[in-house]
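In the laboratory, one determines a bound structure by crystallizing the protein with its ligand and collecting diffraction data. In a computational setting the workflow is compressed into a single prediction: the sequence and the ligand go in, and a structural description comes out. We illustrate the idea with alpha-L-arabinofuranose.
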Amino acid sequence: MRKGIILLFMICLCFPCLKAQEIGITIDTQKSLGNINPYVYGQFIEYMGKCIDGGIYDENPAVSDERGFRKDVLEKAKELAPTMLRFPGGTVVKTFHWEDGVGPKDKRKAKKNLIWGGINPYHFGTCEFIEYCRELKCEPVLVVNISTGTPDEAANWVEYCNGTGDTYYANLRRSHGYPEPFNVKYWALGNEEAAEPDAGRHQDPHQYVKDMWHFIKLMKLTDPTIELIANGESNNLEWTKVALKGLDGAVDYIAYHAYVSTDAGRPYSIFKKIRRSENGLNNYAKLIKETVPDEVKDWKKWYRFPHRTKPVKIALDEWGIWEHQEPPYGTTNTYEWRHGLATACFLNVIQRCAEHIGMANWAQMVNILSPIRTNESTSVRQTVFFPLKEYRARALGESVSADVTSILVDKDLPAIDVSATIDREKKLMTLFIVNISPKELKGRIEILNGQVDKLLDMVVLSSTSIDAKNVLSEPQKNVVLTNHKSVNRKVQELKFQGESITICQFKLK
Ligand code: AHR
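The predicted complex, in structure-token form:
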């Protein structure tokens, strides 16, 4: 027997080979996939449809608190507990001028939302966003308008948020009732600027680099402690490479956006696309490695701000499921339980790519491609809400390798998808197992370079059927069942219910 190999569960091992319905999972505790950045469990809100106005913000006192925060939505958002919140877009940043959304609400400039339609009164602006982040105890990320905004305007926004001196913009914030700085650390330099159909003005990456240096200089000279996210193009590695190389030393993250959908008549296609996203993220990480050094050594710029000191990470600052259903732009999506399983598989990808990802934001939190949906009086948790909540609550700090042997549900698509996380100090290991097949599968889990003491607890998310959904017309009904079992003993057998997500926490010896 190989040294260091402990066979934890051997189910049906009277048979030397796996029966058709069985699976094998091998965890190697010494094969680290990197520390999981806490910011990978983030969310995103944009001035789009009813995400902000009519979603998280509503001035009707029957549903909201004195700040205009919808109480039912805030309660659900707190349950989701995002670690990070991105604002205000998305594509809408191309027309966003932050000064429209600060100060007394009756003096703010209502403007047409030229990107997504409707009128934006900007009653939810920078200060309301920061208050919302404080309520959620999460880190804010602000996205700067680099299209129709100017470097000065961006730097003034930094000063408004973070300034501590006796300056016009720090004083403006104080005059709005916020004596203490907001200390916004993460700032993104535009959004999908290369995308021509999306009003991007930087199809030429060299132009992006040239223009961004002005923004970077002024923003970083205003607050040298901020960290910057450059745009990247997941579908155009050449663009990304030029941007990354040209901005090296000054940016800390490069953005990657990934939306998946289902092809008509091919229900498993969404799961295959999620697997392809994993390749996409790994290729992106390879590109970063090949293009810029982990550490910047020859920082020759004379600017008086510090250069990057850590490797550039991916900011997966928009990810989610876009089934092109109802307006605006097909983003009002009703998710089935199948989408809940897909969300868990995507979270497994994020956890397996831990080494490369510095932050990730589900797009978006309310009403647009969202876990939370509202109408005027009520709200529901969509199916995708539950995996987002449980992964965020249960993942441990480090990702380790998990190999799977499984039956296939479709050509090339294994029924089981797994990610494994550990806390070496506390000697804990948490596994996330998604069974996308309709059959119950029995599992054998093998631990390499470690030993399990016992199974502490198990959470199983399942549903009445694969196409079940939570809808606003029946707000009390919940089609997602969360079964939490405290086990606290050695276990001889693990079974994974058909079309379910199982999260098991083990104590290691
Ligand atoms: O999340 C919806 C939109 O999708 C965002 O505004 C844009 O960045 C992306 O294309």
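Residues 46, 89-91, 191-192, 198, 318, 363-364 surround alpha-L-arabinofuranose (CB under 6 Å). Keep in mind that any predicted model is a hypothesis to be tested, not a measurement.
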